[in-house]
Amino acid sequence: MVAAFAHGAEGILPVASTEEAEETGKRLGALIAAERNVVRCDFAQLGNDPAEYTTDLVSGREIVFDDQWCTSPHDSPRVWCRGDPRRGTN
C-alpha cells in the first residue's frame, strides 16, 4: 500500500477475498492486486511485489487489494477509494 501511494495511487480498497477483489475491481474499473501462493492471480494487474507499483501503472488509479495477503480481516485498515459508497464522503 505504501508503494502504491508513494507512486500516486488515487485510493485503495482492501477486500476480504480473491473473488471479491476480481468482482469489485471490474465493477469500479480499478486496478486489482491479488496473489495466491506467491503467484499473481490471472485477472490481477498487480501482485505483492512493491516494485510492480510504478508511477506509470498506478498514478491516478484506484486499486482493489485482496487483503488476505496483507493483513487480518479483523484488524485491516480500510482506505476507501474515492466514490465508493462505503467511504461515506467523496
What's this, in brief?
This protein has 90 residues and is of the alpha/beta class. The chain is 22% helix and 19% strand.
Structure description:
Helix content is 22%, strand content 19%. The chain has helices spanning 2-6, 18-28, 55-58; strands at 11-15, 31-33, 35-36, 39-40, 62-66. The strands form two sheets. The chain has a three-stranded parallel beta sheet with strand order 1-5-2, covered by helices on one side. Strand 3 (35-36) and strand 4 (39-40) form a beta hairpin. The longest helix is centred in the first third of the chain and has 11 residues, at 18-28. The protein is globular, with a radius of gyration of 12 Å.
Number of strand elements = 5
Strand order of the largest sheet: 1-5-2
Which sequence of SSEs, written as H and E, runs from N to C? HEHEEEHE
Approximate shape: globular
Percent of residues in helices comes to 10-25%
Q: Kindly, what is the distance between the CA atoms of the first and last residues, rounded to a whole number of angstroms?
A: 20 Å
Overall pLDDT: 82
Derived from helix and strand composition plus strand pairing, the structural class reads alpha/beta
Strand content: 15-25%
Oligomeric state, counting identical vs distinct chains? single chain
Instruction: Report on the biggest sheet.
Output: 3 strands, parallel
Number of helices: 3
Rg, nearest Å: 12 Å
Q: Which blocks of ≥5 consecutive residues have pLDDT under 50?
A: 71-77
